[in-house]
Amino acid sequence: MTSPIPPTMGQRLVDASSTHALRHPDSPDWYKREVHEDSKEKFAWAAPYDARFPQIRKQRQCFAYYVDFHRCQELMGADYKPCVFFQNVYKDFCPRFWTEKWDELRAEGRFPAKFDR
After folding, report:
1. For the chain, does the N or the C end have fewer beta carbons within 10 angstroms?
2. Whether residue 29 is found in the same domain as residue 68
3. What pLDDT is recorded for position 86?
4. pTM
């Protein structure tokens, strides 16, 4: 049995903002260990280490996971749940303006990667 794919940090913050109010900057909660540990457990998610990308710069890893997500959807179908893992990783690594540009290129048919193999 596989473990469920956790939501990204961005997804967790969106969910939390709709249910919790933000703390005031002068609140003493900023200095409480319990609050800090609780927020770390609620919000922090990081992509697991990938030995293919030992570099500090994450451009190649961003591109690879973007391609992996779209390849997974192309080969397995848009409703295949494990593809979400690739999406979560590239959304955590990639700046939004990169993925928006890549989405435009895919729509125009000019994206430099193939998704059907």
Report:
1. N
2. no
3. 92
4. 0.71
Domain that holds residue 14: 1-45
Give the 3-state DSSP-derived string for the chain, with helices as H, strands as E and coil as C: CCCCCCCCHHHHHHHHHHHCCCCCCCCHHHHCHHHHHHHHHHHCCCCCCCCCCCCCCCHHHHHHHHHHHHHHHHHHCCCCCCHHHHHHHHHHHCCHHHHHHHHHHHHHCCCCCCCCC
CATH code of 57's domain: 1.10.10.140
How far is the C-alpha of 22 from the C-alpha of 90, rounded, in Å? 27
Q: Are residues 101 and 114 in the same domain?
A: yes
Q: How many domains does the chain have?
A: 2
pLDDT-derived band at 23 (thresholds 50, 70, 90) equals confident
pLDDT tens, residue by residue, 63-74:
999 999 999 999
- Do 24 and 69 lie in one domain? The reply is no
Residue type, 59: Q
> At what angle are helices 33-43 and 9-19 packed, to 10 degrees?
120
